[in-house]
Amino acid sequence: MGRTYFVEEAVGQYLSDLSTKLKPFVTGLLIGQCSPQRDYVIRAVRTPPKEEQKEEDIPSKLASIDEEWITTHASQVAQMLPGGLVVIGVFIIATPELSKDSQNALRKLIFSVEKSLTKRRLWKPAEEEVSDRAALQICSATKKVVCRTYDVQDPRSSAKPADWKYQSALSASWLALDCTVNVNIHIPLLATSPNHDLEKNTKNGLNRWSKQIEDSVFLINGQIKDDDTELLEGQKKLRGNTQSSTQFSDVKVLIQLSQGSSHRSTATVQVCSGSINLRGAVKCRAYIHNNKPKVKEAIQALKRDIINTLSDRCEILFEDLIINEGPHKKNFEREYHVLPQRLFVPVAGSSVMLSDYKFGDEADAEIQERFVEMLDQSVQAEDIHIAEEINTVDICPVTDNVDDTQQKQVTKATLLLKLQQNMGVVIAAAVAVFASIFSFNYFSD
Prior knowledge:
The protein is α+β, with helices and mostly antiparallel strands and 445 residues long.
């Protein structure tokens, strides 16, 4: 018995429109949610054309598909998805003469996309997690739809048939879980680390922090609930409402500060040349289907959003530094940077909101352009909801002149950050000091 995909009707209309506009084929991503009982598809997004690509340069054979371009698009789209939403598959709309090669192309793309997405994750899939991904093939002439699945955990996986069923108002009343997580992560830069690779060190530090999030206790509306109970147990479910409406649950995250008496703890002294500090508060959100969802499904989705949102911001910052200040800035020294703020944008006919990140100097027009390019969605400026805001940032810069005597000391910088209630921003303080013996929070005589 194959899997069943319940698909938002708007997705069917979107795919139908693509089939009449783009020839001889078009590829894209399917966005949705997996669950043990059934899978949901709430968005489809075509692969954007390359900037330098002209109409006459569009490849005419499936063998010429730009796999790297599609996987890069998938990675960027994944950064714009809140918790609970994933790239659930890929699609190809092709002319009849190309249809016979479509399935091979889809299989290759599914595994390439999954490999690309797995590389950037700081969490591991659960053993019981659904690992099937959809391969959707549509004939542009006959409009025939063929859906199959592949198990991305098995490189030798063969295609299995799947049902593709359209449904109106599929995600009009999905459930949302909201939380704000305070962040104060200190990541030492080891003196032995070549060139003080900040990106690598940051990822290592976030890996350790992500394990704390995985082990945290989650209070849903002030209560600890058993994993296998229904999320809506004791609550009234919204029924008969086809309009977009969201039922929110407020979540508090209790991060364990110590391992307890059963774990032996040892102190480690490391020779460091500086440190990276991530401080602030991040807004996190996850969406879950309303078909009797379990508590463990909802908490898992929120955990992953917490981990992803901080990791993605750091990745976006490093990319921005490389683009705007050159590759040499990948290993910058003694600088402070504000990580991008999170924002949310509604999806028409759905209670789900998509996510993105903006730097303080970015205009609304740039955000709107990114949504059109990445998600093929027009966004009005008034629909852009900034989730986090900063009041003031006072920076005490590091002295540039460092003589031999000063090199024996550790320079301490103070970052003052005031956050509005229920809002926040993460400050990435990346400091590399030339000749310190211990962490930069300590001084030597």
